[in-house]
Design brief:
The protein is an alpha/beta fold. It is about 55% helix and about 15% strand. It has an eight-stranded parallel beta barrel with strand order 1-2-3-4-5-6-7-8, surrounded by seven helices. The radius of gyration is 21 Å and the shape is elongated. Bound molecules: SN-glycerol-3-phosphate. SN-glycerol-3-phosphate (G3P) binds next to helix 7.
């Protein structure tokens, strides 16, 4: 499964990128609004740090404006993927943008039917929001499973991008199901690696090694 970071923080992206396992970035207007600086400059800087798909979202709500914004965003850098909301106007815009060869990430997907329409419109990625469904007592992971099952029957060139992942179990479940991509905030990404037994085990290995070295040194000096 490809791992994307869901953030517009250059600090977080730089830090995570050093680990060599970040395949792409997803942003949205809320995430960009949290950062200071020009959003386009931030997007361009992200493209310099991570050589993979970088989602940048349109804010227009009618197709014409979405297409205009999408063309502009895609022109900023070859890595930019245009993120479009899953509404009727978004489908129209996706059809136009994908026909022009621009990659679209259809976002705010909350049902299998929406995902099916997104794929048919030519979206390159579809983003089911797991955590936000959990928030309203609807199992978000079931949506990911349903979309994967549907896409398995057909040949859509559309990857399932599990989004709104809130904790490591969401990430593991998405991988178990075979989601193509999981996007997560830095806090979740950091938790993926941490395990107290790894830390305790490493501490013990190093202590044993130091003790052995000290014993060998004492023997050699006798
Ligand atoms: O990529 C979608 C993500 O930004 C939504 O996450 O946690 O705000 O539901 P969340």
């Amino acid at each position: 499964m490809k791992i994307f970071l869901d953030t517009a923080s250059l600090k977080e992206i730089r830090e995570a990128a050093t680990l060599g396992v970040v395949d792409g970035i997803t942003t949205n207007p809320s995430l960009l609004a949290k950062e200071s600086g020009d959003p386009e400059a931030i997007l361009l800087e992200i493209c310099q740090i991570v050589d993979g798909p970088i989602s940048a979202e349109v804010v227009a709500t009618e197709a014409e404006g979405m297409v205009r914004e999408g063309r502009h965003l895609a022109s900023l850098h070859e890595n930019i993927v245009v993120k479009v909301p899953c509404i009727a106007e978004g489908l129209k815009a996706t059809k136009t943008l994908s026909a022009e060869g621009k990659r679209v990430n259809m976002t705010l997907v909350f049902s299998p039917a929406q995902a099916l329409l997104a794929a048919k419109a030519g979206a390159r990625y579809v983003s089911p929001f797991v955590g936000r469904l959990d928030d309203i007592s609807t199992p978000g992971m079931e949506l990911v499973a349903d979309i994967i099952q549907i896409f398995d029957h057909y040949d859509y060139d559309c990857e399932v991008l599990a989004a709104s992942l809130r904790h490591p179990l969401h990430v593991v479940e998405a991988a178990r199901m075979g989601a193509d991509i999981g996007t997560m905030p830095m806090s979740v990404f950091t938790q993926l690696l941490k395990h107290p037994l790894t830390d305790a085990g490493l501490k013990r290995f190093l202590e044993d090694w130091e003790r052995t070295k000290a014993q060998l040194a004492a023997k050699a000096s006798r």
